[in-house]
Amino acid sequence: MADAVARVLGTHGPAVLLLPGGAEPVEGFFPGLAEGLVADPGCRVVLHDRPGTGTSEIDGTLAGASAAVHATLAGLGLGPVVVIGQSLGGAVAALLAHDHPEDVAGLVLLDSSLVNDPALARTTERSVAVMARLDGVPGGRSVLRALMRWSTGREADRARMGPAHRAALSRIVDTDQARLRDAAVGLAELAATFDESRLPRVPAAVVTADRKPTSGIRRAHRRLADALGCELRSWPGATHAVHLSHPDEVLATCREIVRAAAH
Fold it and tell me: Model pTM greater than 0.85?
């Protein structure tokens, strides 16, 4: 069944689907991105909270995410679309391209969770599970949130984020850690069967945070880029929340892929 939590901005042009990270709602997650794409080159942007995330009241799992997104696009009568996903949303974007390549006209992965590396995917699952446990310990939540606010405050200062991007980063800090844990369940199992060779050759960009060349995450992102036949992109100081630390570069990249997919 298609999730009712989806709306479309714009009335004409290529269709674009935004998939936020974690279990976050799409509204406000990508400040200015949807509006920027509607303005130029002129897009219909789908804002979608997949089952189990955001404002969706439908239970869902990561294993069922690509099927749920496929059903939503079919219900809207849209497709193929350019899919833009960050973090866990990037993993869902890659899964949609893997499972339903007919739905995907282009792909932008913004420091996506590693659905193509079982060991790193397992680390991600364990990390969010630990965070959820700490968040549930008496007194643990206040300490955890204080540390996260301090860290993200420094991140926002270094990136010279504007008010909208700082607010979006603050909302991520205040996320429901138990819901995030549930949203990531199954990532390692999916990574164990993810076949990079099944990814379609469509206009694509894989963006990774500013990490050392030897980073396992960077290497996994490079494998995704190689499988898609595109370059691996990064910018100095880019963080995991690259859509907030480098919004202008992300918007330019998305516009580039949308234009390429339209030809």
Answer: yes
- 27-76 pLDDT tens trace: 999 999 999 999 999 999 999 899 999 999 888 999 999 999 999 999 99
Smallest Cα–Cα separation from 209: which of 180, 250, 152? 250
Within the chain, where are the H helices? 33-39, 65-76, 88-99, 118-136, 140-159, 163-173, 177-184, 187-193, 216-228, 242-245, 247-262
Phi then psi dihedrals of residue 91, to 5 deg: -65, -40
Domains of the chain (ranges, CATH numbers)? 6-262 (3.40.50.1820)
Which phi and psi (to 5°) does residue 177 adopt?
A: -65, -35
3-state helix, strand, coil in the chain (%, to 5): 50, 15, 35
Strand order in the sheet with 6-9: 6-9, 44-48, 15-19, 81-86, 104-110, 204-207, 232-233
